[in-house]
Amino acid sequence: MAEQLEVVENERKQYIVVKIGNEQYGIDISYVDNIVRMQKITRVPKAQAYFKGIINLRGEIVPVMSIRTKMDLEDDVFTNASRIIILKIEQQGSLGIIVDEVKEVVTLGTAEIEKVASQIKDGKESFINGIGKNGEELISLLDIHSILEENA
Predict the structure, then answer these.
(1) For a tag site, which of 34, 46, 79, 104 has the least CB within 10 Å?
(2) Is 126 helix (H, G, I), strand (E, B) or coil?
(3) What is the per-residue pLDDT across 18-56, written as a single tens digit (0 to 9) for each?
């Protein structure tokens, strides 16, 4: 009996729900190392347009990218709610992504997640690997690895 409970437990994942523009996106919490307030971002010459620059986070230099620019959305508008989410990725180390607002943490089971059909994966959709249903709200689940790909 205890083994069956464990299987159900493993199928649930936590996501940090963020706002980018008017849309809500979910980021798998296992990638999230830290969430920090907006701070001065130092530009890096000749970097891709979506790289805003670097920040100094407690002595560690962390590159910061604009997820809006990467997804061909309008430019970032920084407010008091804007945050930099620090992601930890095995091979790449730390990377910050700018979001408009951090909303909440939700736990979604596999039953609440619809996979995105591969034929609509072009442009912005290629960064989404599923749609989470949290009550009445829909949350686009970000595919962190496709966002980080250089040529995307």
Answers:
(1) 46
(2) helix
(3) 999 889 999 999 999 999 999 999 999 999 889 999 999
Q: How far apart are CA 51 and CA 67, in angstroms?
A: 9
Phi, psi angle pair for 79, to nearest 5° = -130, 180
Contact (CB, 8 A) for 126 and 147 = no
User: H helices of the chain, where?
Assistant: 2-10, 67-70, 144-148
- Where in 1-121 does DSSP place strands (E)? 13-20, 23-28, 32-37, 51-57, 60-66, 83-89, 93-99, 101-108, 113-114
77-86: pLDDT as tens digits: 899 999 999 9
- pLDDT of amino acid 77: 86
CA distance 148 to 63: 12
* CA–CA dist 54, 37 (Å, integer): 14
